[in-house]
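hi! just following up on the protien thing from before. the input was this:
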Amino acid sequence: MDLVMSFSQLNWLAVIAATVVGFFFLGGLWYGPLFGKAWMSGFGFSEADLAKRNMVKVFGLSFLLAFIAAFNLAMFIGAEAGLVVGVLAGFFAGFGWVATFLGILYLFEKRSLKIFVINAGYCVLSLTLMGAILGIM
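and the predicted 3d structure came back as:
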């Protein structure tokens, strides 16, 4: 792969759109009204615990990490991917790499299946949506 060519063909608008959709839209729904209380319960967090965090740091660095994930996926699938390749690449990256490694970590950490499904599900769905956006733009 010609890295210079890959950078020059990268659709930065698609990378930013994929980041925003994966992080703000899906993440906000997933860890908010859909699974927020179950996620908090699974980790033993209270509203007070979460309120003590530096939200600028948490959201800022999380957005940066989501951007890196979208950028990496864009570089991986290439500029000519199309919707089907983007969706499949995103799904298999989320399921085949991220969810499997989370599963390994969670087994050793003795974390619950509920927490695994919530976190791994977000990763799989987020990367799948990112792949769709990158593929169609």
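The mean pLDDT is 94.
The radius of gyration is 16 Å.
cheers
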